[in-house]
Amino acid sequence: MKVLVPVKRVLDYNVKPRVKADGTGVDLANVKMSMNPFDEIAVEEAIRLKDKGVTEIVVVSIGEQKAQETLRTALAMGADRAILIVSEEKVEPLGVAKLLAKIVEEEKPDLVILGKQAIDDDNNQTGQMLAGLLGVGQATFASKVELASDSVTVTREVDGGSETEKLSLPAIITTDLRLNEPRYASLPNIMKAKSKPLAQKTPADYGVDVSPRLTTLKVVEPAKRTAGVKVADVDELVAKLKAMGVAK
Amino acid sequence: MKTLVWVEHDGKVVKDATLAVVTAASKLGDVHLLVAGSGVDAVAAEAAKIAGVGKVHVADDAAYAHALAENVAPLVVSLMGDHDAFLVPATSNGKNIAPRVAALLDVMQISDILSVESEDTFTRPIYAGNAIATVQTKDAKKVISVRGTAFEKAATSGGSGTIEAVASTGEKGLSTYVGSEIAKSERPELTSAKIIVSGGRALQNSENFHSIIEPLADKLGAGVGASRAAVDAGYVPNDYQVGQTGKIVAPEVYIAIGISGAIQHLAGMKDSKTIIAINKDEDAPIFQVADIGLVGDLFKIVPELTEKL
To answer: What is the distance between the alpha carbons of residues A47 and A55, in angstroms, rounded to a whole number?
Structure first.
């Protein structure tokens, strides 16, 4: 059984983003970049499914040359080979989903596991779009995955609790935070990952038009909150709450 | 412009999340609703009373009973010949369904909008709310998810929508609903609560969370939330989580107790009207966004506060 895991290179989640003064975007020069945290969970889940019948894990990333590093990280975690689709232009979720659909046609994976959202765009779209384009089942926000030979049962995090769905294969899954705890790549595995295959492609190789549908007119910082006050004790806090009408 | 709004419901009542979407949709043009489900006459009748609503399309079929995206998306697409935009609340259902619809229509979705600037221009948060982007779409049909806390709720009465049955697009056989576990709570729902009391890792365990956070919440009639750390540590179920990957809330008052204030948590609550922080670390980032801060030991402060209220 083959699993495809798309991964994205994003600003590290610990870094506070800085909005560029000219309003064109967030400053990504000389800042730490990492694999999107939800994608790490997706890679980890694919690896854990290896003793449940998964024989090959292919990771794919779409973006600038440097996304190679992200793919090498996934290979060091335990993926078998990688595909990088190089695009110096930003590709929107719709374009990404179209490219992934082409790769799915070519690779014929039984399962595609994606992160539920990338922490840069916060879109939460790609997995669902891919499932729509392929006409297959989707289980978003997965917190538990049970794989059988011809189906997958997924517990999903939904508003108010959890929900379980069963999908026939092939299927698309997107990971939520609580699906698993991703492993760290060991040094020997990082070394080994350097010799694992990594194919390079371009969107044109797949005949997919990835020109953007959305234009970002400007990016600004959110309104700053005005500085607050510190109170000395509970009595003062109670008085404030009463003044606000929160407490009687 | 004609808009189609996904009505979020539980089979019995229209959920609040729908109301903010109606307001957002009314800024674009005529508001039509879609009630999809099984045995949803009562929901449709309630939906038709929402102020400003025109047509209410009702798709009653077992295939829609659990809002499975595989069945619902083709239904929405079948209605998009007559509509220019499809709007959903950014709930788990909305986020599950809308991008599938967008892909079938070959358009880019605009996620989690904060405002409608014009018919094709919207603002939305990126990078966990650390930046606000203004985006313009070139697509003829628009698919949009709406952040509930960013728009006023439409009135639940005064409307006179006409109810119209729509043909089912049927069961696609790609997925099956197996079951669900929905947490029962007597407290106000997090995303619509006026006051939220939220606890973090500093509570140390589940017992403390229940014995310290909940009495204060009950005294204030507040909803109870938690940071990711508290959820990961198993103090409370994960639907309590407030943040970039949990719920986005904007209550009148948000009381953060034993929460340091990581970027990802702030993303979920920094639009609250008043933020109150109780933390023993006076350098905790939460104090940079708090309107009122109290530095000290929550195990002493919170019971005292509950007592004095």
So the answer is: 10
Amino acid letter, B198: S
Can you give the pTM of this predicted structure?
Answer: 0.94
Are the beta carbons of B309 and A166 separated by less than 8 Å? Answer: no
Question: Cα distance from A49 to chain B (closest Cα, Å)?
Answer: 21
DSSP B124-179: EEETTTTEEEEEEE--SSEEEEE-GGGSPPPPSSS--PEEEE-------SSEEEEE
pLDDT at A118: 97
A158 phi, psi to nearest 5 deg: -125, 170
- Alpha-carbon gap: B153 to the closest alpha carbon of chain A (Å): 19
Between chains, do A222 and B253 touch, taking CB under 8 Å as contact? no
Contact B95 A241 (CB under 8 A): no
Neighbours of B155 (CB within 10 A): 14
* Number of alpha carbons in the 13 Å side-chain half-sphere of residue A214: 26
Do β-strands B292-295 and B223-226 pair in parallel, antiparallel, or remain unpaired?
unpaired
Strand A229-231 and strand A171-175: the pairing is unpaired
| Closest chain A residue to B189, measured at CA | A160
Tally of residues, chain B: 309
Of B69, B133, B232, the CB nearest to A128: B69
Letter for the amino acid at A29?
A: A
For B131-151, the pLDDT digits (tens) are: 999 999 999 999 999 999 999
Q: Which residues of A touch B182 (CB under 8 A)?
A: 160-161
B42: Cβ contacts below 8 Å, ≥ 6 apart? B12, B13
Judge whether B126 is closer than 8 Å to chain A, CB to CB.
yes
* Chain mean pLDDT for chain A: 95
Across the interface, whether the CB atoms of A122 and B125 are under 8 A apart is answered yes
Task: Name the closest residue on chain A to residue B292, using Cα atoms.
Answer: A229
Rounded to a whole number of angstroms, the distance from the CA of A70 to the nearest CA of chain B is: 19
Distance CA B142, CA B1 (A): 11
A83 CA to chain B: closest CA distance, Å? 23
DSSP category for residue A216: E
Report ipTM (2 d.p.).
0.95
Token pair listed for A30: 């000389």
For residue B115, the SS3 value is strand
Instruction: Inform me whether the pLDDT recorded for A227 exceeds 80.
Output: no
Alpha helices of chain B — where are they, by DSSP H?
17-26, 41-48, 69-79, 92-105, 206-208, 214-220, 228-232, 263-269, 298-308
Residues 150-209 of B with CB under 8 A from A: 173-183, 191, 195
The tokens of B33 are what? 């609703």
